[in-house]
Design a protein that fits this description.
Number of strands: 0
Order of helices and strands: HHHHHHHHHH
Length: 253
């Protein structure tokens, strides 16, 4: 019975983008914006990200997940931009590790043609720097993955705290939002597992379409749909998780 009740409570978080005709039309509008990102990069994505964070804001405040209207575009852009800045900074160490490994690896290919000017003996010696480059790349990939996990896990709580306080600096006040995350660690883990599952299904569906010649063009239309749906579900889930953690923390104090 407890499992059935839990599934019933989670159902609105999966179905709210399609709960009525109005929600469906707003969902299609978001997909169209993401699709326009293939023509005009970054800007449409910030509006869509802001829209998702507006849904997170409503769930943080205790409202059931729903599809708000597409209005107050300046507010959507501002919210999306602030969320993007926080996301960028939290994942910056991982990005730097990845880029360092890639730069070292491909830098060796620049040295290979240059070494031909110095004779074969110098080319033979290049084998050892090449091995070093391979090791550096794999090590940077491993370090980057660890940093990405460490940066991604607290990210929803920090962005929810930003939205709750309507301040960019609130996302970096770790002492304020970390107790909320710690109080509801299980909720965050469950939310991450659900979002990861949706992403896995989306990736598999896109790969199947992409690998077929007939459905290849359709894959690029499906990608914004799956991406937007994942973004909406994640925003609603993590907003609710933050709200539950905040409420539990207040009961303890």
């Amino acid at each position: 019975m407890k499992r059935q009740a839990t599934m019933t409570q989670l159902k609105p978080f999966f179905s709210f983008p399609f709960q009525d005709s109005q929600a469906k039309s707003r969902f299609i509008a978001g997909c169209a914006l993401l699709l326009s990102g293939f023509i005009v990069p970054i800007i449409p994505g910030l509006f869509v990200y802001g829209y998702a964070l507006r849904i997170m804001q409503s769930t943080v405040e205790g409202e059931p997940p729903s599809m708000p209207s597409w209005d107050d575009w300046a507010s959507l852009f501002n919210l999306g931009l602030r969320g993007a800045i926080v996301s960028f900074l939290f994942t910056l160490p991982a990005t730097a590790a990845y880029l360092f490994g890639i730069a070292v690896y491909f830098g060796t290919f620049i040295l290979i043609p240059l070494s031909s000017n110095f004779g074969s003996s110098s080319s033979d010696l290049l084998f050892f720097p090449f091995l070093f480059a391979m090791g550096a790349m794999f090590l940077s990939m491993a370090i980057g993955t660890v940093l990405l996990v460490l940066g991604t896990f607290p990210l929803p709580a920090s962005i929810a705290h930003l939205i709750k306080n309507d301040q960019l600096s609130a996302a970096f006040r770790v002492r304020e939002w970390w107790p909320i995350l710690s109080t509801n660690r299980l909720g965050y883990i469950i939310s991450f597992v659900i979002v990861a599952g949706i992403l896995g299904i989306a990736y598999y569906a896109f790969f199947v379409l992409y690998s077929t010649i007939i459905l290849l063009c359709l894959a690029f239309f499906i990608l914004p749909l799956l991406g937007f749906y994942t973004m909406l579900v994640a925003a609603a889930l993590f907003g609710e998780t933050y709200r539950e953690g905040s409420a539990a923390l207040k009961k303890r104090t």
